[in-house]
Amino acid sequence: MENKTDNLEKELIQKYKLKQSEYDKKRYLKRKEELKQKYINNRDEMRKKQKEYYNNNKDRYIQYYNNNKERILEYNRNYKLQKKEANKSM
Q1: Rounded to whole angstroms, what are the CA distances from 73 to 5, 9, 36?
Q2: Could you give the CA distance from residue 76 to residue 48 in angstroms, rounded to a whole number?
Q3: Sign of torsion, CA 40 41 46 48?
Q4: What is the pLDDT of residues 52-63, one digit of tens each?
Q5: How far is CA 34 from CA 22, 29, 46, 62, in A?
C-alpha cells in the first residue's frame, strides 16, 4: 500500500515537470523567433553587400565575360547537354 506522502511526492514531481515543459516551450518559441529575425537581418545584409560589391566591380565582370565569352558559352552548352542526358537516364 502506498502512503499519501508517496502520492503527494509523485504529484509534485508531475506538476514540476509540467511547469518546466511549459517554460521550455515558451523559451524555445521566443528563442526561435529571435533566431529567425537574426537570420533575416543577416541574409538581407549579405545580399546588400553582394549587390554593392557587384555594382562596384561591374566593369571587371563585364570585361571577364567579354574576354572569356566563347569558353563560357561552350561550358553552358555542355552543362545543358549533361543535364538532359542525366534526365533521360532517370
Answers
A1: 81, 75, 40
A2: 28
A3: positive
A4: 999 999 999 999
A5: 19, 9, 18, 40
